[in-house]
Amino acid sequence: MPLDISKQVVLITGASSGIGAACALALAQRGASLVLAARRMDKLREVADKAKALGSRVVIAPCDVAIRDDVIRAVQAAKEQFGRLDVAIANAGYGLRAAVHLMSEKQMEEIWRVNVMGTWYVMAAAAPIMIEQHSGHIIVVSSAIARRSIPQMGAYAMTKSAQLALAEAQRIELSGKSVHVSTVHPITTDTEFFQRATERSGKRVDGLGKTQSAEWVAKKMVRLIEHPRPELWPYAPVRYALAFAAAFPSLVDHLIKKNFSAEKNIQKRV
Ligand SMILES: NC(=O)c1ccc[n+]([C@@H]2O[C@H](COP(=O)([O-])OP(=O)(O)OC[C@H]3O[C@@H](n4cnc5c(N)ncnc54)[C@H](OP(=O)(O)O)[C@@H]3O)[C@@H](O)[C@H]2O)c1
What is the pTM of this model? Predict the structure, then answer.
């Protein structure tokens, strides 16, 4: 039996745009109660108003996921306003383009703080509530890049692999407590992600290969909530390609070098 979405209280970090916002609206359409968290309050209010117009009960939480107290406050808002927390979606994050040896210490620390610590804060704050409830679902929005890094995206890929490592561990830790832990692995998705990454990197960042919409990812994530499972790959073929990549690293290095070499990308994108 699929879980009844209309009875779920769902926290989403990074709900002010892209996948987080699309998820909020897809869940609002199905009657979920929402706690929407992000830094840009104007954008967050726009998403909240749309969700309310769809009939959803919505609370907005100003939240920088790099600040633990902000995340704790957002999680507590679910308990205070709706009495429970059924689903916590650690979605906030950003990308960065730089060669490994050229990244600054500040860039490394910042991306780790937002993408990894921000995810861990959600996982750590949501788990005790869900354990006490004897039910819950923690969903971590990672990336397809978590399973294979590419040139210029080493720091970003590092954070996405780290999220996966945390989630794989927590999934087993909580498995006897009726709390699910899942990861989501989108391919290139049409959101503000590339604009933000370009601003942060000081050079242009584009997606690679096939592009999917945030709405498509959100639709699949609603299904993931209805039918919890360890991993969601919104574009399934890449999952099998990456299993192959893990078995043949030298060959895949060669293919990546040929198709997506740093030089080629620089020429194409700058
Ligand atoms: N787009 C892609 O191609 C793609 C592919 C694979 C995985 N992903 C992952 O999907 C997730 C969502 O990205 P997106 O594509 O939807 O990009 P997006 O449109 O740029 O959305 C990113 C969200 O994260 C929030 N955010 C960023 N830094 C934050 C911080 N310090 N504290 C709180 N919120 C913060 C932003 O809100 P505020 O700025 O308002 O705080 C925004 O709502 C990310 O984790 C990303 O790594 C994206």
Answer: 0.96
